[in-house]
Amino acid sequence: MNSLRKSVLITGCSAGGIGGALADAFHAKGYHVFTTARNPSKLSPSLSSAANVTVLKLNVLSTESIAAAVESVKSQTGGRLDVLVNNSGGGYTLPALDVSIDESKKLFKLNFWAPLTMLQAFAPLLIKTKGCIVNNSSVNAIAPMPLMSIYSSSKAALLSASETWRHELQPLGIRTITLLTSAVKTNFFSEHPAADVPDDSQYFEISDFIHGLVDGRMQENGISAKQYATKVVGEVEKGTVGVV
């Protein structure tokens, strides 16, 4: 790749989501884009086949997969990376009395521990470029909704950690941006676990309402993924630091 061309790696780039839109927006700005997904067949074919786009199979829950991604990036950039976007994430919508502890821990691993693992793995590449890390948290981190305590708290943990990393990474020349993402029109809820309210739940009478929270209606008044991605890339380009 052109050594003068900036590079970005984005996690969770399946077509129809925020990651795919971010990949398009960075690519439009001239970046070499490392677009990633657990299943690369879910990536946009037009983006995957574009010049200056490298498709990587990446499972952010696997240290081996992350290490392989690091080596792939290093081999193409000379050990450099300008921007790392921790976008992968998931949701979980159920009353606290009904959630599975195991599933809750899995969500924290995806929404919190995976971004930290990615940061540790790619930090040497970001230090070389005095680069930028972008962590996709959620407005629910500061405005938690009932029935979403696990999701909200996982995103709150990421927000708190990301802001702490901002102070730790600044002396190394790395900028940190934390996104408080609100309603964006994507396919997020198509990948969202079903809100299966147990028959003996204290909240069974409102199970239809709970199911409605994961059918995509919450996104109806949101902005488009393209609008969102354009704004995020703009923040990266103008040197923003901190919470956006």
Secondary structure elements and their pairing?
Layout lengths: L6 E4 L7 H11 L3 E6 L7 H4 L4 E5 L5 H15 L5 E4 L14 H29 L2 E7 L10 H21 L5 E7 L2 E2 L21 H6 L10 E2 H13 L4 E2 L1
Parallel strand pairs: 1-2, 1-4, 2-3, 4-5, 5-6, 6-9, 7-8
Helix pairs in contact: 1-7, 3-4, 4-5
Features:
7 helices; globular; alpha/beta; Rossmann fold; 7-stranded parallel beta sheet; 244 residues
Account of the 3D structure:
Helices cover 41% and strands 16% of the residues. It has helices at residues 18-28, 45-48, 63-77, 101-129, 149-169, 207-212, 225-237, and strands at 7-10, 32-37, 53-57, 83-86, 132-138, 175-181, 184-185, 223-224, 242-243. The protein is an alpha/beta fold and 244 residues long. Helix 1 crosses helix 7 (225-237). It has one domain: Rossmann fold, CATH 3.40.50. The chain has a seven-stranded parallel beta sheet, with helices on both faces.
